[in-house]
Fold these 2 entries.
Entry 1:
Amino acid sequence: MEPVGPVVWNDLLYQTAASHAQDMLDKNYFGHISRDGRDVGDRFDELGYKWQFAGENLGEGQESFNEVVQDWLDSPSHCKMIMNADMKEMGLSKRGRFWVQHFGTRMPKNYKRTNTRYTEGN
């Protein structure tokens, strides 16, 4: 993938990632859609991250940060998310065997999102 600008750490995205990782651990599932039907956009909305762009990478079972990052970089779809120039902020969390990486870009001031549902790549 072509290089893109750096992302910056966002504590709210860390919280959304930690929440989803904990939910997967508590409810024993692995997926982008939670057992109650929420997706990454819903998770951002729930914790107050007003998003224009939203994305999520998941990992399961990797023992280290370096291992999960290498797995993501080796996967075309996960690498595409990491190298998505639309993503400006990031948070990452691990709970038990689950890793969650959240990417986002905040909605500009005085803008209103018209698409209220998240769709992959949008």
Entry 2:
Amino acid sequence: MTSGPHLACEFDDNAILQDVVGPQNQNLLRLEQRLGVALNLHGNVVSISGPEEQSLKAQTALMALYKRATAGQAVESGDVDAAARLSADTADNEDLTIRTRKKHVSPRTPGQAAYLRALNDHELVFALGPAGTGKTYLAVAKAVAMKIAGHVDRIVLSRPAVEAGERLGFLPGDLREKVDPYLRPLYDALFEMMPGDQVARNLESGDIEVAPLAFMRGRTLSNAFVILDEAQNTTPVQMKMFLTRLGERSRMVVTGDLSQVDLPVGAKSGLEDALNVLKGVKGVARMAFTSADVVRHDLVTRIVEAYDAHGSTAPRPAR
């Protein structure tokens, strides 16, 4: 890499560089728009023009994308956006990639990078924020990677079936048919990380368990990676019950969005209660995502920002 009046990034493999810049240099154009710089490709060199701070960010982003392409990973528009966001992260050289059977998952925002560090360093992590920020997706990826590496023996994924009031007997079908609609997002995340036949075998053997929150009572979950999703819809009693299931050599992640509580009007969220009770407790980490961490369609980010600017969601109807 050389420097002069403008920064210049020189790359060893021109074929890999073509994967980085994309068809008709689309990825370079996207990076220009995100960082406010001018990028020009000359053979195996990308020259960078613009304000010094932004040019340094572009340099960091290009090197990160080249590293990704060198590892055989695709470089798509979302990856370019992620590199632009992470270019200002002082710890961007740290390898936080989660490696599973089907894919490698890397943080796409500084918030996601901080979340992965918290998952590495703490036994209990609360992850708060809007949809599309990767709260559950990254937690499931981390759980699968830890099981593959032998750090845990099993994965337990849970959600409160709040629409059914946990009274599943009133729903049609057998037990699995009753609870699957509430747990489908957790299954979807699993199938992103593992081949379908492996998911099926692990579910059959009990090495992976996907169950409603009511099924956690009276258990101790040892040597496990345990995730409670949609935790804003727990009551304080349910949350205490769940948190006290944590056993030896286990990790626990609790995800939720306090702006999307579906409990009856006036009922206190167990997630909000736990955050107050456990403030300052050793071994507990809290991650708060914002609209800046939304990594779905650009429109989702704008929708979240619009609701944030409005100040609140629509009032919940009485039940």
